[in-house]
Structure formats: structure tokens, C-alpha cells
Automatic annotation (TrEMBL):
Catalytic activity: pyruvate + acetyl-CoA + H2O = (3R)-citramalate + CoA + H(+)
Family: Belongs to the alpha-IPM synthase/homocitrate synthase family.
Gene: cimA
Taxonomy, superkingdom: Bacteria
Protein name, UniProt field: Citramalate synthase
Keywords on record: Amino-acid biosynthesis, Branched-chain amino acid biosynthesis, Isoleucine biosynthesis, Transferase
Pyruvate carboxyltransferase domain boundaries: 8-269
Stored NCBIfam families: citramal_synth
Pathway(s) per entry: Amino-acid biosynthesis; L-isoleucine biosynthesis; 2-oxobutanoate from pyruvate: step 1/3
Catalytic activity, EC: 2.3.3.21
Top-level EC class as recorded in UniProt: transferase
UniProt-listed InterPro entries: 2-isopropylmalate_synth_dimer, AIPM/Hcit_synth_CS, Aldolase_TIM, Citramal_synthase, LeuA/HCS_post-cat, LeuA_allosteric_dom_sf, PYR_CT
Length: 539
């Protein structure tokens, strides 16, 4: 097999399929942040969502992220029955939102006649005409053959006719969907092998659901059979039991099977961090047992096992943990940290001596803070501030000597139905040799605190421009110590943005949610001042 045969293309559908996960509700800002992380990893295709399906997807496509390595894709469906492709508003709107379109259609005769209520030939015409129409308007069109494997088992000839109509009309990829997740790896291999006698494997993709816990295995079986595109999601997000997990598929293809997926070895070292970025976005704890990237993936405990690992790691580690951005944990004596800290320094452009005493202290600080509940995988700005402070590169811009927040709730009618809630914050701040006090109201305690702090900082001429640019666009709270009820330790993540469209995330942790919020807010303002090149006025 030559090198071109070894190229497998990756298609991420986290922003659409992941949105179908129970309890997941992405904002447009979430989608943008996840897309940027995927772009950093050089995923070939990033499906942004279904334009017109909901306000969030519309907002995302109205202001799409600027991608450097990946291609943005819009998802939709073939033309409706009884309409021409040129006269279908939903179909034509797809071309206005992204340079690449992936459209779904039926490949199971049962669904064509029963769900759509149309003739089998009409469905084939819907597929081919839709593909041909959009092919003239965008750079690339794909066809998702919904329920393909069920359709193949019920009526092989019709299922193949459906995907052939898409391929012959100009589809770059024909994607075979195991929509209900019920097909097993041996079936996948045999059916994809047959498909590749009809359509070249270089135009065949696979899209698997995880209802039998086989989505990853099914995806790899399809590649073995000749398919050269895999669709999946970060951390296996998706409806019901989820989709094929790209976080497991990527290193398996690269490190185990020798395929080229367009991701460099250096980029692969970001895999764990990107997996955790998604979890932070979802405000949930990363799965410790996750393959490759989980905290327990390379953890070893006790006796002969640890002795064997220390002598020959390959005894109990199937790959080197550093290849995927993870690290070995000897649980009786945790040795990890320095290499990851050095890698993060390289990411933020700081050159340091690996033997520096400051690095050792920073490793211990990070370990202690993460033990306390901090998470820096999803808060790169707070980590950079911590690192630069440890290296003596960060001055304090201001010092808050005290703050107070008061919430007042008033009922303004006799039936107690009309309620007004008001927050008021008072801050005392020192900048340079000057002391300030400010009071501000807000629509919540964090908003009031933010307003009061900014009210002081904009009076400092050197700070004004940078501070006025800051916009808080997301705020998340997670309980860290779940069993403690209202006394629990909380972690607050704040995402901020400036007028140039740059965004950054910061973190704060405390048993007091207002204090945790202040810590994240302080880091957000400090980070913007530092990145703007503002000189500190604080003595």
C-alpha cells in the first residue's frame, strides 16, 4: 500500500452530533472555541452545524471562526420531494454558509417508502440532483447515507444505488452511516469491502454510533476495508450512547496502524489538553478511565507492577504517554509534571532553562492548585499568568484590598409575583500610589463586581483602552467537592473577548463562589493588560 493509500481524512461532527447529547447545550461561543481547538489539531473537516435549524447554529455561521488548518462544513439535507433543487430554499441556503456541504439522505428502501412516502426512483433523483446542484456552488459536497447498513442488509442493490447516485453526481465523499449503532465490526468490514468494489475507497467514509460500544472498532474496521474518511466527535459525544470517539481513533490510526491523518506528532501531544478543553466547556469532570488521555490511562499502583513499569514501561503501557500529551502516574509517588509544564511554556512562547529552579517551584504550585480544584487545560490565560509570574515576567497591575457584594430582592406586588433583584458591589483598589473606592450595580453579583472594578481601572489613562475592550462572553460554575452541599468548593471559568475577536479563558476556585468569580475576573483583566503591552502602574 503506497503512502496515498495510507491517508485517512478526519471529519469532526462535535458541533452538531455532540449537541444532540443529553444535557449538552452549546452556545455560539462554545462552538467557536471548540472549532479553534479542532483547527489547532488540524482536523480535516469541522462540521459547524445545520444552518437554519436553530438560532445557535445561525449565530455561529454568521460569524464563523477563522480556521488555519481545517475546513468548515455546513450540514443539511437533500432537496424535498416534489421540488427542484434550484427551488428548494433549505438546500440553497447551505451554499451561503460554508465552502463545503455535507447533506444527508435516505439509503434504506423502507425509509424511502414509509418515512418519506415517495417512490424509490424519486429518492435517487433527490440525491443526485441535490449533489449536482450544490457541486456548482461550493468547493466540495459530501453525502451522508443515513441507515446505510440497515438498508444494505434489507436491499443491497438499492442501498448501493443510492450511494452510486451521489458519487456519480459529484460527491467527494460518500459516507456510510451506522445510524442506530447496531452493526458489528465483522459486518462493517464485509459491507465496506463490498462498497469499495463499487465506489473507490478514497471516496468512502464511515460514520458510526456507539450503541453496542463498537463505534471505534467499527470505524477502524471500515478503514481496514478501504474507507478513507472517518466521522466522529471529541470524547465520543452524541445522542444515545454517543458517536465514534476521535480522541481514541486518532492515536490508534497514527501509532498503532501507521496511517497518516494529517496530524503531526507534535500536534498529537495536544490531544489530552483538547479533550479536556471540551470537558471544561461542558462543565464536567474529564473521564479518568478515558483511553489515551484519562488520568488513569497510564496510572500504576503498588508492588511488582510499579517495579516492572520502572524497568520496562512497555510491560503495562501500550504507547508512551507523552505522545498523546499524557503522563505516567506512579500513584504511591507521583513523578509527573515538569515535561508538561515545559511544553506549555513553549506554547505561550516563553523560553526557559529546563533546569531552572523556578520551573520546579512552578510544577509544585500547579500540582497543589490542581489538587485544590484549579484546571488549567481549559484556562490557558490563567496558566500563562501563573507561569510568567513564576519567571518574574509579570508585574501586578492593581491590588484589590477589599470588596463587598450585596444582593437585594424585593417583591413589588401583593401577590409576590413581581420581583426585582439588584446586586451592588463596592471595591477598594490600589493602583500605584493611589487608592480608589468604587460602587456599581449589576444584574448579578459578578456583573456588579466587574462593573465596580472597571470603574476604577478606566480612570487610569494607561489602562483605559485595554479595559474598555474587554467583554465577558461566558461564565461557568462547577462544584468540585460534590458531597459538601452548599459548603462545596466551586470552580468558576470565565471566557472573555476583546474588540479584535481575541478570546481567552480564566479560572478561579474557592468555597465562596463570589471569591472564585473575582479570582477569574482579576485574571481576565490582568491578562488583557499584559497582552496589550500595558506597563504596570502599581508599585
Amino acid at each position: 500500500m503506497n503512502m496515498s493509500d495510507k491517508r485517512v481524512y478526519l471529519y469532526d461532527s462535535t458541533l452538531r452530533d455532540g449537541q444532540q447529547t443529553q444535557g449538552v447545550d452549546f452556545s455560539a461561543a462554545d462552538k467557536t472555541a471548540i472549532a479553534k481547538a479542532l483547527d489547532e489539531l488540524s482536523i480535516d473537516y469541522i462540521e459547524g452545524g445545520w444552518p437554519g435549524a436553530n438560532p445557535t447554529d445561525d449565530a455561529f455561521f454568521a460569524n464563523p471562526p477563522k480556521l488555519k488548518n481545517s475546513k468548515l462544513t455546513a450540514f443539511g439535507m437533500t432537496r424535498r420531494a416534489g421540488r427542484s433543487a434550484s427551488n428548494d430554499p433549505g438546500l440553497n441556503s447551505l451554499a451561503q454558509n460554508a465552502p463545503i456541504v455535507c447533506m444527508v439522505g435516505k439509503s434504506w428502501d423502507f425509509q424511502v417508502t414509509e418515512a418519506l412516502g415517495i417512490e424509490l426512483e424519486e429518492n435517487l433523483a433527490m440525491i443526485s440532483e441535490s449533489i449536482a446542484h450544490l457541486k456548482s456552488k461550493v468547493s466540495e459536497v459530501m453525502f451522508d447515507a443515513e441507515h446505510f447498513f440497515d438498508g444494505y442488509k434489507a436491499n443491497r442493490d438499492y442501498a448501493l444505488a443510492a450511494i452510486k447516485s451521489a458519487y456519480e453526481a459529484g460527491a467527494r465523499w460518500v459516507v456510510l452511516c451506522d445510524t442506530n449503532g447496531g452493526t458489528l465490526p465483522d459486518e462493517i468490514f464485509d459491507i465496506v469491502t463490498d462498497v469499495c468494489t463499487v465506489i473507490p475507497g478514497g471516496n468512502v467514509g464511515i460514520h458510526c454510533h456507539n450503541d453496542t460500544e463498537n463505534a471505534v472498532a467499527n470505524s477502524l474496521a471500515a478503514v481496514r476495508a478501504g474507507a478513507r474518511q472517518i466521522q466522529g466527535t471529541l470524547n465520543g459525544l452524541g445522542e444515545r450512547c454517543g458517536n465514534a470517539n476521535l480522541i481514541s481513533i486518532i492515536p490508534t490510526l497514527m501509532l498503532k496502524m501507521g496511517y497518516d491523518v494529517g496530524i503531526s506528532r507534535e500536534q498529537l501531544t495536544h490531544l489530552r489538553r483538547i479533550s479536556h478543553i471540551l470537558d471544561e466547556r461542558l462543565n464536567r469532570e474529564p473521564l479518568r478511565q478515558a483511553a489515551y488521555v484519562g488520568d488513569s490511562a497510564f496510572a500504576h499502583k503498588g508492588g511488582l507492577h510499579v517495579s516492572a513499569v520502572e524497568k520496562n514501561p512497555a510491560c503495562y503501557e501500550h504507547v508512551e504517554p507523552e505522545l498523546v500529551g499524557n503522563q505516567r502516574h506512579i500513584l504511591v509517588s507521583d513523578q509527573a509534571g515538569r515535561s508538561n509544564i515545559l511544553a506549555r511554556f513553549r506554547e505561550i512562547g516563553v523560553e526557559v532553562d529546563p533546569k531552572s529552579e523556578a520551573i520546579g517551584k512552578l510544577v509544585e504550585t500547579v500540582k497543589q492548585r490542581e489538587f485544590d480544584g484549579y484546571a488549567y487545560d481549559g484556562a490557558e490565560a490563567s496558566f500563562e499568568l501563573l507561569a510568567r509570574k513564576a519567571m518574574g515576567e509579570l508585574d501586578r497591575y492593581f491590588r484589590v484590598t477589599s470588596f463587598r457584594v450585596i444582593d437585594e430582592r424585593r417583591w413589588v406586588d401583593e401577590q409576590d409575583e413581581q420581583v426585582i433583584t439588584m446586586s451592588e458591589a463596592t471595591v477598594k483598589v490600589v493602583v500605584g500610589d493611589e487608592q480608589y473606592m468604587s460602587v456599581a450595580e449589576g444584574n448579578g453579583p459578578v456583573n456588579a463586581l466587574d462593573a465596580a472594578l472597571r470603574k476604577v481601572l478606566v480612570t487610569v489613562p494607561e489602562y483605559r483602552e485595554a479595559v474598555e475592550q474587554i467583554e465577558l462572553i461566558d461564565y461557568k460554575v462547577r462544584i468540585i467537592t460534590r458531597g459538601d452541599g452548599t459548603r462545596a468548593v466551586t470552580r468558576v471559568m470565565i471566557e472573555s473577548r476583546d474588540k479584535e475577536g481575541n478570546s481567552w479563558s480564566t479560572v478561579g476556585v474557592s468555597t465562596n463562589i463570589i471569591e472564585a468569580s473575582y479570582n477569574a475576573l482579576r485574571d481576565s483583566i490582568t491578562y488583557k493588560l499584559f497582552k496589550s503591552g500595558v506597563r504596570s502602574q502599581h508599585g
